[in-house]
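Q: A reviewer asked whether we had any structural model of the full assembly, not just the individual parts. We don't, so I'm hoping you can provide one. Inputs are below.
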Amino acid sequence: MRPLSSNLRLLHGVWTFVKQKTSKRETSVEKYILEMRDITKTFPGVKALDKVSFAVKQGEVHGLVGENGAGKSTLMKVLNGVLVPDSGTIMVDGVPMTFRNAKQAQACGISLIYQEFNLVNTLSVAENIYLGFLQTGRAKFIDWRRVRADAVHLLENLGFDFNVREKVQNLSVAEKQLVEIAKALSVNARIIAMDEPTSSLTQKEIDKLFSIIRRLKERGITIIYISHKLDEVMAICDSITVLRDGHIIDTKIANETSSAEIISKMVGRPVDMKYPRRPPIIHGEVVLEVRKVSCAGFVKDISFSLKKGEVLGIAGLVGSGRTELVEAIFGARPLQGGDVYIHGRRTSIRNTADGKRYSMGLVTEDRKETGLALHYSLADNIVITNLQKLCSGIFVNKKLMQTNVDQYVQELGIKTPSSRQAVMYLSGGNQQKAVLAKWLFSEVEILILDEPTRGIDVGAKYEIYLLMNELVKKGKSIIMISSELPEVLGMSDRVIVINEGRKKGELCGDAISPEAVMSMAIQ
Amino acid sequence: MSLKPGIHNFRTKIIKILRSQGVLIGLVLIIIVASILERSFLTASNLLNILRQASALGILCLGVTFVMMTGGMDLSVGSTVSLCAVVAVSMMNKYGQGTASNSAALLAILTVLAIAFFIGVTNGFLIVLFNGRLGETFIITYGMQIVVAALALLFTGGQFIAGTFGTGLYQWMSSGFVPIILFLSLAMIMHIVLAYTPFGRQISFIGANMDCARMSGIKVSGIRILVYGICGMCAALTSIIVTSRVYSASPLQGNGYELDAIAAVMVGGTSQTGGTGGIINTILGVLVLGVLGNALNVIGVDANAQLLFRGAIILVAVGLDMWNKSISLKESAK
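A: Here is a predicted structure for the entire assembly that you could use as a starting point for your response.
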């Protein structure tokens, strides 16, 4: 319970101190603000980190990249005291430290901003920033005026502009991120680690975040930036460290390397192409036709068709109605108007069971919430879409189930010790493959993929693209929604662009260009 | 890559067994302690007695297990037992004199099964209408509990109904091994349904992740409604056995049954958030509470003090369940 004004003074003090230090050091040998030496961390059965040495210079933005399961999160948890390493030392400003919990790391100026925020939605911005350090007045009551004033001061200092009385639940994801940053700075963070900070931000918000990161950097604050999105890492980071399988592979100065080099270090093999080519295999037959479909508040009068063997991309910003459109077609949302034709026949789809009956499958955008039952086994998750297929008589035949599951595990290359493994223990890429396996097992003809590669690593992404090509080759049709423009462009035969619930255009062949799509998506 | 050898490995093994087989171990411990303290506990007649007493509540627990597997709760089963009890006994009193007793019993049983199924389906329908989660199922079935309790009281004018019907099928329902066989065979059927049929797998999956189940093309609403209906029918069967044994019915017959049933199901290890557990767990849970009650009686523990043990064992079971969950959370946290 430190008084806040002194807290701020201290913060200011630290900055000036840090500035002096850096200016002094300019002539001398570069020193590391943070050094982690020979960190080893073992979990039962897995060596998550194997003698990892990682050093960060004062005031730089240091990118940490690697595939899922490479050990990035473990390394960061060791850094901020959530996990205690088996061996190895952490040195801050050249002084060895041992962190037993996050509080000790925080006291040392290290803050970690998680992908899932640690904010209390029902409390105000000011309360969230100073949670646990709320300023009390004379009678041990909280001095709200002072708390708010401090929060305003802190946010102004950072160049953020929002109402500190606002409840966090009313903020956008980007604003929540800013609150997290402010919270870190309120406890005098000198090193801020950000885990996938842009995973749910729009391009505009990303630009804003970057300008804030640059401002923090000017103030001598060191940033460790963990991300899958390589172009962002290349854009913002001064140096980049690549982790693979619990080992440090290399550390590079950002402008002395290329994304291709970083990717090949991440996956351990050269990557020649980002998107695998496929010969045109579209058949003339229209499998799905959507006519003037509307869905309350989200989608208005959208029509399109899908041919056999085609990949149709749906582009548009987050919140443009893309997800609602496909959910309505699949039966997860009531249709307000319009018709859906499958193989030329008019359908009435009232629920997801109907959608499945018409041979559609939807891979939802959030695999953890709506794609998988996390504590159920891989096998149970895969077969749930079509238990009838496994029945002999009225009973589920476990043997048949096993052979079927094994087949899909092998076909999709799902890495798991056994099909009895609970899916929560699988990596993101393998979880995504499991969701795909559900619908392949159900033998649907029309696969709708909503953000099929969100939050998975480069290697797994490539495997999913290959799989998509394999599927259209077999005569299936795919609708793919993605926020990553290059992915939509790289994988689709045809693209429709949605903006504010309306179809803004349709692009085909050579007409598909990033400029054309973007101008339709934001006009 | 290696696990720590020796003592550590041994310990994790023990913990693993404790985690998965805790209820069974508890049951065996209670039996051992009780038979050491009192010889008459471990006799065939006493064990049969335990089973007979546990069967009526056990059948109710089977229905509640289905509901809890979907991640729901049914508080209305207690008053459903009451309503079915007064309806069945008054039907028997009216139509079941002398030789007509057997056909009247059949009629009464079918009637209360239908009534209870209707109550359950209504529960399910309301819950589905509001797309209810655990919290909503709680409050909706609580409302239903009050409504049905009122119906039972109105039906008899608040009066206790003494049995005046002839012996026969109705009385047979609680004689000898009948309730035990009824309970165990129903348990077996429901276990097979839950574990080996598509319907049962879908029930569990709904409990594991309802949104995911819906997005997987499962008819979530229909299954949920049916499950509450099944639960209601189990309550009807329980009411038949209970009233058959006591040869009377009270509009308060099933008071508190819902909580006893939920406790037994949870002690067995079916989680109230759904998706984990099952019928075998519930049989164990019913037996633990049944054996404990009987053991305390046989040993001669004061009735009020017995409640202490009962409460404690429920708390221990819930504590174990939470401990179990926190361990699996830690395992997944890496």
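A: Points you may want to mention in the reply: Chain B touches chain A through 27 residues (CB under 8 Å). Residues 55-316 of chain B form a domain with the ABC transporter involved in vitamin B12 uptake, BtuC fold (CATH 1.10.3470).
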